[in-house]
Every structure is written in C-alpha cells, then in structure tokens.
Design brief:
single chain; alpha+beta; Pnp Oxidase, Chain A; seven-stranded antiparallel sheet; three-stranded antiparallel sheet; 5 helices; 32% strand; binds flavin mononucleotide
Length: 204
Amino acid sequence: MLLDLTRDDRTWQDVYKLCVTFVVPRPIALVSTVSADGVRNLAPFSFYNMVSANPPVVMFCPGTPSKGGKKDTLRNVEATGEFVVATVTHSIADPMNQASASLPPEVDEFEYSGFTPRPALHVRPALVAESPVNVECRLDRIVSFGDLPGAGNVVFGRIIAIHVGDAVLAEDGLCDPLKLDAIARLGRLTYARSTDVFDLPRPR
Ligand SMILES: Cc1cc2nc3c(=O)[nH]c(=O)nc-3n(C[C@H](O)[C@H](O)[C@H](O)COP(=O)(O)O)c2cc1C
C-alpha cells in the first residue's frame, strides 16, 4: 500500500488513524493540571515522550478539538505554566480511560475518574496517588501546528521533580519495566504492557 499525501485527498482523520497504528507503542502521560480558578483536571495523552536529557524535558500534545477551541489541559497549562505527568500502569488503565471523557472545565476530573490527588512539591497541580511515577514540570514552550481541528499543540515542560515509588525500582535505582507494568497505545482500542521485554547489548 502507498499513501501519497501530495496526491491523495484522504481526510486528516484517515491519515491520523493509520499513523497511530505504526507509531507504536506510545507511552501515555496522565496529565494533571489546575485551571486559573483552581479546578483540578486530569487527562491522558499518548502523543508523549522525553525529548531532551539536559535540560530534562518532556512533551505531550493536546490536539485541537473537532469543534474548535482548546482542550482544558492546554488552557490550564497556558494559564498556570505548570503540570504533572503520571505514568499509566496496567492497574489504573480503567480510571485513566475515564479521565479521557470530554467534561466541562468546572468538573474535578480526579473526583470524576476516582483518582486520589496528592500535593506536589513545587507545583499546584496534584500528583496522582495511584500512579507509581509522577513528574513535576514547568512549562518551557508550546509549539502549535495551526488551529484546524486535529492540529497538534506540543507542550514542552522542564522536569523539576520526579517521584518514584520504591515498589517499581530495580536494585540499580532505575524503574524495572516488569514491576512498573506501564501501558502504551497501539492504535484502535488496543494497548500494550511493558512486561514483554528483551535485552539487546549495544554495539561498540
Ligand atoms: C490512552 C489515550 C490517549 C490519548 N492521547 C491523546 C493525545 O495524545 N492528544 C489528544 O489531544 N488527546 C488524546 N486523548 C484524548 C484526551 O484524553 C481527551 O480529549 C480528554 O478529554 C482531554 O481532556 P481535557 O479537555 O480535560 O484536556 C487520549 C485518550 C486516551 C484514552
């Protein structure tokens, strides 16, 4: 199959649906923010990764909704400059999915999805108590790919604190993928777990 986007007038939704079945597995950021009025918000984003080691920077990407406007997470980050990213593990897949519901900005999405907020060290958005890893971030910049429906708004955040539960640590002080049991998206409604692993020594 060849999809030539310079000739084919496929919709952006068709292209998106195909691409998210091969840009896989995508880790999931469960992003905690607060609105300017202090309402807690929580939503999952699988357009997520670490993109700089020094300084340590993560990015996630709220798309522009089909009806236009901005997702609450993006609006909150713009208003406050702060967010927390919690790692999504297999045991919290269901409440994570609940947190993806489209809800009005005045709804506390911790309460709605059944997650427990825990105070962060440096930022106002709460940590997710049920997640073994929470990363506190300060907004660095936002890069927007326009304002059409589906346009990406890439949020870059500098990591300022990392909370890791002892239960997911290996003896070397790093996360053990088998203990972490993080989940990732594979397109459609399919997910993967970080428990199917193999090692590959690096070439000299
Ligand atoms: C596993 C998963 C991953 C998602 N990834 C994204 C994403 O990368 N970008 C995005 O815009 N929406 C993504 N969504 C949808 C958002 O979570 C959803 O639109 C949510 O309502 C946004 O919340 P907010 O308006 O409170 O920010 C994802 C949903 C799920 C279940």
